[in-house]
Amino acid sequence: MTLTPAPRSSVSDHVFAQLRDAVLSGAYAPDAPLPSERELAATFEVNRHAVREALRRLQQLGLVKVSQGGATRVLDWRVHAGLDLAMSSGDILPVSTLVRDMMEMRACLGADAARLCALRGTPAAKETVIASVDALAAAAPDLDRMGEANVALWRAVVAGSGNTAYLLAFNSLVSGALAVGHVPPTLRTAELLDVAGHRRLAAHIAAGASAEAFAEAQTLLTAPISDRKETRA
Protein backbone atom coordinates (compact mmCIF):
# COMPACT_ATOMS: atom_id res chain seq x y z
CA MET A 1 0.00 0.00 0.00
CA THR A 2 1.47 3.40 -1.04
CA LEU A 3 1.24 6.26 1.44
CA THR A 4 0.77 9.72 -0.06
CA PRO A 5 1.54 13.21 1.27
CA ALA A 6 -1.27 14.79 3.30
CA PRO A 7 -3.41 17.61 1.94
CA ARG A 8 -3.14 20.86 3.87
CA SER A 9 -6.64 20.47 5.33
CA SER A 10 -7.25 17.95 8.11
CA VAL A 11 -3.63 16.81 8.17
CA SER A 12 -3.94 14.56 11.23
CA ASP A 13 -7.15 12.99 9.87
CA HIS A 14 -5.37 12.13 6.62
CA VAL A 15 -2.45 10.47 8.42
CA PHE A 16 -4.81 8.61 10.76
CA ALA A 17 -7.05 7.33 7.94
CA GLN A 18 -4.17 6.09 5.79
CA LEU A 19 -2.42 4.31 8.66
CA ARG A 20 -5.71 2.82 9.87
CA ASP A 21 -6.50 1.49 6.41
CA ALA A 22 -2.96 0.15 6.02
CA VAL A 23 -3.27 -1.79 9.27
CA LEU A 24 -6.72 -3.16 8.47
CA SER A 25 -5.73 -4.12 4.93
CA GLY A 26 -2.83 -6.20 6.25
CA ALA A 27 -0.08 -3.94 4.93
CA TYR A 28 1.22 -4.00 8.50
CA ALA A 29 0.77 -7.34 10.23
CA PRO A 30 0.08 -7.77 13.96
CA ASP A 31 3.22 -7.13 16.04
CA ALA A 32 4.97 -5.45 13.10
CA PRO A 33 6.53 -2.05 13.86
CA LEU A 34 5.27 1.06 12.16
CA PRO A 35 7.83 3.46 10.71
CA SER A 36 9.21 5.93 13.25
CA GLU A 37 7.50 9.28 13.88
CA ARG A 38 10.32 10.97 11.97
CA GLU A 39 9.89 8.64 8.98
CA LEU A 40 6.11 9.03 8.97
CA ALA A 41 6.38 12.80 9.19
CA ALA A 42 8.71 12.80 6.19
CA THR A 43 6.52 10.40 4.19
CA PHE A 44 3.34 12.39 4.80
CA GLU A 45 5.16 15.75 4.63
CA VAL A 46 3.67 16.85 7.94
CA ASN A 47 5.05 17.82 11.35
CA ARG A 48 5.51 15.21 14.06
CA HIS A 49 2.65 16.61 16.12
CA ALA A 50 0.19 15.51 13.40
CA VAL A 51 1.77 12.05 13.38
CA ARG A 52 1.55 11.77 17.18
CA GLU A 53 -2.13 12.74 17.11
CA ALA A 54 -2.84 10.11 14.45
CA LEU A 55 -0.98 7.44 16.42
CA ARG A 56 -2.89 8.39 19.57
CA ARG A 57 -6.18 7.84 17.74
CA LEU A 58 -4.97 4.51 16.36
CA GLN A 59 -4.05 3.43 19.88
CA GLN A 60 -7.49 4.42 21.18
CA LEU A 61 -9.05 2.17 18.53
CA GLY A 62 -6.87 -0.76 19.60
CA LEU A 63 -4.88 -0.87 16.36
CA VAL A 64 -1.42 -0.03 17.68
CA LYS A 65 0.55 0.15 20.92
CA VAL A 66 2.65 3.27 21.28
CA SER A 67 5.79 2.83 23.40
CA GLN A 68 7.64 5.89 24.63
CA GLY A 69 11.15 5.69 23.23
CA GLY A 70 10.40 2.42 21.40
CA ALA A 71 8.71 1.22 18.26
CA THR A 72 4.97 1.62 17.74
CA ARG A 73 3.70 -1.90 17.09
CA VAL A 74 0.57 -3.06 15.31
CA LEU A 75 -2.05 -4.91 17.37
CA ASP A 76 -4.47 -7.57 16.18
CA TRP A 77 -7.77 -5.67 15.91
CA ARG A 78 -9.73 -8.91 16.51
CA VAL A 79 -8.24 -9.03 20.01
CA HIS A 80 -7.91 -5.38 20.98
CA ALA A 81 -10.49 -3.28 19.08
CA GLY A 82 -14.03 -2.37 20.11
CA LEU A 83 -17.17 -1.13 18.41
CA ASP A 84 -15.55 2.25 17.80
CA LEU A 85 -13.51 0.61 15.06
CA ALA A 86 -16.63 -0.40 13.14
CA MET A 87 -17.99 3.13 13.52
CA SER A 88 -14.85 4.71 12.05
CA SER A 89 -13.94 2.21 9.36
CA GLY A 90 -16.92 0.14 8.26
CA ASP A 91 -15.97 0.58 4.61
CA ILE A 92 -12.48 -0.86 5.07
CA LEU A 93 -12.89 -3.33 7.94
CA PRO A 94 -12.17 -6.76 6.39
CA VAL A 95 -15.49 -8.36 7.38
CA SER A 96 -18.08 -9.05 4.67
CA THR A 97 -21.01 -9.52 7.06
CA LEU A 98 -20.55 -6.54 9.38
CA VAL A 99 -24.03 -5.05 8.89
CA ARG A 100 -25.62 -8.43 9.58
CA ASP A 101 -23.36 -8.94 12.59
CA MET A 102 -24.31 -5.58 14.08
CA MET A 103 -28.00 -6.28 13.53
CA GLU A 104 -27.60 -9.62 15.31
CA MET A 105 -25.96 -7.81 18.22
CA ARG A 106 -28.83 -5.32 18.27
CA ALA A 107 -31.33 -8.19 18.37
CA CYS A 108 -29.63 -9.81 21.36
CA LEU A 109 -29.23 -6.52 23.21
CA GLY A 110 -32.77 -5.33 22.42
CA ALA A 111 -34.46 -8.54 23.51
CA ASP A 112 -32.73 -8.59 26.88
CA ALA A 113 -33.27 -4.87 27.34
CA ALA A 114 -36.99 -5.45 26.78
CA ARG A 115 -36.95 -8.17 29.44
CA LEU A 116 -35.21 -5.88 31.92
CA CYS A 117 -37.46 -2.94 31.06
CA ALA A 118 -40.48 -5.09 31.91
CA LEU A 119 -38.86 -6.23 35.16
CA ARG A 120 -37.51 -2.97 36.53
CA GLY A 121 -38.58 -0.11 34.29
CA THR A 122 -40.20 2.78 36.10
CA PRO A 123 -43.82 3.71 35.30
CA ALA A 124 -42.52 6.79 33.48
CA ALA A 125 -40.12 4.68 31.41
CA LYS A 126 -42.90 2.31 30.43
CA GLU A 127 -45.13 5.22 29.46
CA THR A 128 -42.33 6.50 27.22
CA VAL A 129 -42.19 3.11 25.48
CA ILE A 130 -45.95 3.19 24.87
CA ALA A 131 -45.78 6.76 23.54
CA SER A 132 -42.87 5.76 21.27
CA VAL A 133 -44.98 3.01 19.71
CA ASP A 134 -47.72 5.57 19.06
CA ALA A 135 -45.11 7.75 17.31
CA LEU A 136 -44.03 4.77 15.21
CA ALA A 137 -47.63 4.11 14.17
CA ALA A 138 -48.18 7.78 13.35
CA ALA A 139 -45.13 7.77 11.05
CA ALA A 140 -46.55 5.00 8.82
CA PRO A 141 -46.28 4.40 5.95
CA ASP A 142 -43.21 6.66 5.54
CA LEU A 143 -40.34 4.21 6.07
CA ASP A 144 -37.76 6.94 6.68
CA ARG A 145 -39.85 8.48 9.45
CA MET A 146 -40.67 5.03 10.80
CA GLY A 147 -36.96 4.23 10.91
CA GLU A 148 -36.30 7.32 13.04
CA ALA A 149 -39.26 6.51 15.30
CA ASN A 150 -38.07 2.93 15.61
CA VAL A 151 -34.64 4.03 16.86
CA ALA A 152 -36.35 6.31 19.40
CA LEU A 153 -38.57 3.42 20.54
CA TRP A 154 -35.66 1.08 21.14
CA ARG A 155 -33.74 3.83 22.88
CA ALA A 156 -36.68 4.14 25.27
CA VAL A 157 -36.66 0.37 25.85
CA VAL A 158 -32.91 0.26 26.48
CA ALA A 159 -33.02 3.33 28.74
CA GLY A 160 -35.90 1.75 30.64
CA SER A 161 -33.85 -1.39 31.24
CA GLY A 162 -31.62 0.53 33.63
CA ASN A 163 -28.51 -1.11 32.13
CA THR A 164 -25.91 1.57 31.42
CA ALA A 165 -23.66 -0.79 29.48
CA TYR A 166 -26.57 -1.66 27.17
CA LEU A 167 -27.29 2.03 26.68
CA LEU A 168 -23.70 2.80 25.73
CA ALA A 169 -23.62 -0.16 23.32
CA PHE A 170 -26.93 1.00 21.80
CA ASN A 171 -25.47 4.48 21.28
CA SER A 172 -22.59 2.90 19.35
CA LEU A 173 -24.99 0.82 17.27
CA VAL A 174 -26.97 3.85 16.09
CA SER A 175 -24.13 6.33 15.57
CA GLY A 176 -21.21 6.65 13.20
CA ALA A 177 -20.79 5.95 9.52
CA LEU A 178 -21.86 2.32 9.74
CA ALA A 179 -24.79 1.99 12.11
CA VAL A 180 -27.94 -0.06 12.44
CA GLY A 181 -29.89 3.17 12.61
CA HIS A 182 -28.56 4.10 9.16
CA VAL A 183 -29.36 0.78 7.49
CA PRO A 184 -31.80 1.56 4.64
CA PRO A 185 -35.36 1.17 5.96
CA THR A 186 -36.17 -1.14 3.04
CA LEU A 187 -33.88 -3.71 4.69
CA ARG A 188 -35.95 -3.47 7.88
CA THR A 189 -39.43 -3.26 6.38
CA ALA A 190 -40.74 -6.36 8.17
CA GLU A 191 -39.77 -4.92 11.55
CA LEU A 192 -40.87 -1.35 10.87
CA LEU A 193 -44.32 -2.23 9.55
CA ASP A 194 -45.16 -4.61 12.41
CA VAL A 195 -46.87 -1.94 14.49
CA ALA A 196 -49.09 -4.57 16.11
CA GLY A 197 -45.99 -6.45 17.26
CA HIS A 198 -44.55 -3.28 18.77
CA ARG A 199 -47.84 -2.63 20.56
CA ARG A 200 -47.72 -6.14 22.01
CA LEU A 201 -44.15 -5.49 23.10
CA ALA A 202 -45.15 -2.27 24.85
CA ALA A 203 -48.09 -4.00 26.52
CA HIS A 204 -45.86 -6.80 27.83
CA ILE A 205 -43.37 -4.25 29.17
CA ALA A 206 -46.14 -2.22 30.82
CA ALA A 207 -47.55 -5.37 32.44
CA GLY A 208 -44.14 -6.48 33.72
CA ALA A 209 -44.30 -9.66 31.63
CA SER A 210 -40.56 -10.09 31.12
CA ALA A 211 -40.54 -13.45 29.30
CA GLU A 212 -43.22 -12.30 26.86
CA ALA A 213 -41.43 -8.98 26.28
CA PHE A 214 -38.19 -10.83 25.55
CA ALA A 215 -39.89 -13.16 23.05
CA GLU A 216 -41.76 -10.35 21.27
CA ALA A 217 -38.64 -8.20 21.01
CA GLN A 218 -36.65 -11.13 19.67
CA THR A 219 -39.27 -11.77 16.99
CA LEU A 220 -39.31 -8.11 15.94
CA LEU A 221 -35.54 -7.68 15.85
CA THR A 222 -34.65 -10.91 14.07
CA ALA A 223 -37.10 -10.34 11.20
CA PRO A 224 -34.81 -7.98 9.25
CA ILE A 225 -31.82 -10.29 9.77
CA SER A 226 -33.56 -13.32 8.26
CA ASP A 227 -35.09 -11.30 5.42
CA ARG A 228 -32.07 -9.33 4.24
CA LYS A 229 -29.53 -10.52 1.67
CA GLU A 230 -25.86 -10.64 2.59
CA THR A 231 -23.98 -7.66 1.20
CA ARG A 232 -20.48 -6.32 1.57
CA ALA A 233 -20.49 -4.03 4.63
From TrEMBL:
This is HTH gntR-type domain-containing protein. The keyword Calcium does not apply. Signal peptide: none annotated. SMART domains: FCD, HTH_GNTR. It comes from Dactylosporangium siamense. Keywords: DNA-binding, Transcription, Transcription regulation. Residues 9-77 form the HTH gntR-type domain. The keyword Cytoplasm does not apply. SUPFAM superfamilies: GntR ligand-binding domain-like (SSF48008), Winged helix' DNA-binding domain (SSF46785). One of its GO terms (molecular function) is DNA-binding transcription factor activity. PROSITE patterns: HTH_GNTR.
